[in-house]
Design goal:
The complex is a heterodimer. Chain A is built from twelve helices and 15 strands. Chain A is an alpha/beta fold. The termini of chain A are far apart. By secondary structure, chain B is α/β, with parallel strands linked by helices. In chain B, the strands form three sheets. In chain B, strands 12-11-7-10-9-8-15 form a seven-stranded mixed β-sheet, with helices on one face. In chain B, strands 3-2-1-4-5-6 form a six-stranded parallel β-sheet, with helices on both faces. Chain B has a two-stranded antiparallel sheet with strand order 13-14. In chain B, helix 5 crosses helix 7 (about 255-270). Classes of the chains: A alpha/beta, B alpha/beta.
Chain lengths: ~375, ~280
């Protein structure tokens, strides 16, 4: 018997999301087919045009209303990649319609939204996956070491994640005091980078150390005038503690193009009582120093994508892993989960924990590193 | 002549010092072997002092009775150079710390960070090895010295978090400095010494060194052993410089002494403790 093919509705090509990165995965997977592109009616005209352009390119209908899209024949999974403030509401409506959810990075803007979605998903009994965190080479290699190396009981996890993207312009030094509180995440010209980049590190810490009990954070604008002008962060650092006493540190940042041979450091130290392990998430890689590529490199980010949300930075190497970000592995997990009637490895419930930790980091950073206890009080 | 006081974990640097400097003897009150070493080894400092009458004693490892050892040396007018803080009397006859100034990794990082291309410092991350409580404390003090030099210290916010499993201690120092730069200084129970692991981020770019890329590896069928290139150890130059006496002694950093009680409080309470700020 031929196995089912799962129809995927692409919900928004917002420039703040990564739908464009998901398209090749959905196209490549033999058990998945893209059946439509959809969005809300109240979005900016430029986004409507972008959505239509993608629908045309993919040869599927564009539906400018979610209700209409959810009624479309053959939609089993909705890939939600809108701006963070919209994700939870959209996901909730999809779950109530019985659709399985593939969600890009964040399930909501606030913990209240995240809790509502988690509850709706539980009741609707749909499958959910956030593919960005659990399947990357960094995490896979950490898992391998935790399973195979004789580290002793794990005492700490220390992660640095930075994107060598964007073209920095001078900002005041030291950074202007005052950091925008958590909750407002989306700006037309920037992303909050402790959230955007630090989320990968925080997910790794959570997987390795389990529930966290306290957080300290510091964050500010060090590279981009866009961040300085809006009191948002292009760099952030967090120190975290687990219920078992484990310690963690992380940093997340966008530090500007051409600052690292492989597009930005992505590293972890796993500290055990007997040994410490070191993992470079950008390796194994083949280093490449080809003269004409280096001397002719286009280091200026594209004018239409100054922060390089959609474009890569020039690198001096090639990953040896077939799927370094693990997005395809995530899709395979989702398909298997649908086949086997189980949940994928990383669901909205993990996504809710992640938002809680990052929110705590921002609360601390806004209070100059004050200790913030977890779990957070309701209302965040 | 020089006498050394060191834990067996310091065997590689002890052997290096024995080759490079006029080392007369070694005191090691701990169990364990230093491997091939042609030095007389004593378990009591008083015995060593009586037998060899050194002009300088170098404390390379901390010990709970180090303050006593210091007093003993000072009473006999023997100079002391200590790799970490000792709660002893102020005297021109002894000093602690400062070895990072003779580390090629630190020197290069400092030179790069002073380039106009580097911009202003944003973040420093270091991971080094410690061991027991006192060793971890000394390692943290070394990192603190490095961080203050690289980020334009002193810090205006300084927290320490500590965790232990048996004798293995793990410390995290979180700091920020008046220009806005931050730092994570991590002491793991085990890490190659000297650590070549450094990330220094400036507004103009990144200066970094990976442990794996800067270590000598010996691969056998059974295992891979990592060795630090000898010249990365700062101790020979640090001790030689002290013996030459060409610069005034470093003033002790009071943050170093206030760090140990903060570590102990964090171990008891399971949350970070303010050392400053």
């Amino acid at each position: 018997m031929t196995p089912n093919t799962y129809g995927v509705l692409l919900l928004s090509f917002s420039p703040h999301g990564h739908q464009r990165n998901f398209v090749p995965l959905f196209q490549r997977h033999p058990r998945v087919s893209i059946v439509g592109v959809a969005d809300e009616p109240d979005i900016p005209l430029a986004l409507q045009a972008l959505n239509r352009q993608w629908a045309t390119q993919l040869g599927v209908p564009y539906l400018p209303s979610l209700d209409q899209a959810l009624a479309l024949h053959g939609v089993e999974v909705v890939s939600i990649a809108h701006q963070q403030e919209r994700n939870a509401g959209l996901a909730l409506r999809c779950a109530l319609a019985g659709k399985h959810l593939w969600i890009d990075k964040y399930i909501g803007a606030t913990l209240t939204q995240c809790d509502q979605l988690a509850e709706a998903v539980r009741q609707a009994k749909v499958k959910t996956i956030l593919p960005s965190y659990a399947y990357s080479q960094l995490l896979e290699q950490c898992r391998q070491l935790l399973a195979e190396a004789e580290l002793g009981p794990l005492m700490g996890v220390h992660v640095e994640a930075m994107f060598s993207k964007g073209w920095p312009r001078p900002v005041p030094s030291p950074p202007a005091p005052g950091l925008e509180a958590p909750g407002r995440w989306t700006y037309p010209q920037l992303k909050r980078e402790l959230l955007t980049v630090g989320a990968y590190a925080a997910a790794l810490v959570l997987e390795c150390l389990g529930p966290l009990t306290w957080v300290q954070g510091r964050a500010g604008a060090y590279f981009f005038s866009e961040h300085a002008a809006t009191h948002t962060d292009d760099f952030g650092m967090m120190t975290l503690g687990s219920a078992g006493g484990g310690l963690a540190t992380l940093c997340g940042a966008r530090i500007g193009v051409a600052t690292h041979p492989l597009g930005g450091p992505l590293k972890a130290h796993l500290v055990g009582s007997r040994a410490t392990a070191y993992v470079d998430g950008k390796r194994p890689a083949l280093d490449t120093f080809l003269r004409s590529r280096i001397t002719g490199a286009q280091y200026q980010p594209p004018a239409k994508d100054p922060m390089q949300w959609a474009s890569g930075s020039p690198v001096l190497g090639a990953s040896l892993a077939a799927d370094p970000t693990g997005l395809y592995a995530g899709l395979e997990d989702l398909v298997a989960a649908l086949d086997e009637d189980r949940q994928p490895r990383y669901t909205v419930h993990h996504g809710r924990q992640l938002i809680e930790v990052l929110t705590a980091g921002y609360l601390s950073a806004a209070a100059q590193g004050a200790l913030v206890s977890l779990p957070l009080e309701p209302g965040h | 002549m020089i006498a050394l006081l060191a834990h067996p974990r310091q065997a590689p640097v002890v052997r290096l010092l024995a080759q490079r400097l006029p080392v007369a003897a070694l005191c090691s009150p701990w169990r364990g072997s230093f491997g091939p070493l042609s030095l007389p080894v004593h378990t009591h400092l008083a015995e060593l002092l009586a037998a060899h009458q050194p002009g300088l004693v170098c404390f390379l490892s901390p010990h709970p009775r180090l303050a006593e050892g210091l007093s003993l040396c000072l009473a006999r007018e023997i100079r002391v150079l200590s790799a970490g803080p000792v709660d002893g009397p102020a005297s021109p006859q002894w000093q602690w710390g400062g070895q990072h100034h003779f580390s090629p990794l630190f020197q290069q990082a400092l030179a790069q960070s002073r380039s106009p291309d580097f911009g202003v410092p944003v973040y420093l991350r270091r991971v080094v090895g410690g061991g027991g409580l006192l060793e971890a404390w000394w390692a943290a003090c070394r990192l603190l010295g490095e961080a203050q030099a690289l980020l334009g210290g002193p810090p205006d916010w300084f927290q320490v978090a500590a965790h232990r499993r048996g004798q293995s201690h793990h410390l995290v120092l979180s700091l920020s400095f008046h220009q806005g730069a931050g730092a994570h200084l991590v002491v793991a129970p085990s890490y190659p010494e000297p650590s070549a692991d450094l990330t220094l981020l400036g507004s103009g770019g990144l200066v970094f060194s990976d442990q794996g890329a800067n270590t000598l590896a010996v691969v056998s069928q059974a295992a891979t052993d990592l060795h630090a290139p000898a010249f990365l150890h700062p101790e020979p130059a640090w001790i030689s410089h002290y013996l030459a006496g060409s610069t005034p002694p470093l003033p002790p950093d009071p943050l170093h002494l206030s760090l140990l009680p903060a570590i102990r409080r964090s171990l008891r309470q399971g949350v970070p403790m303010a050392v400053l700020g």
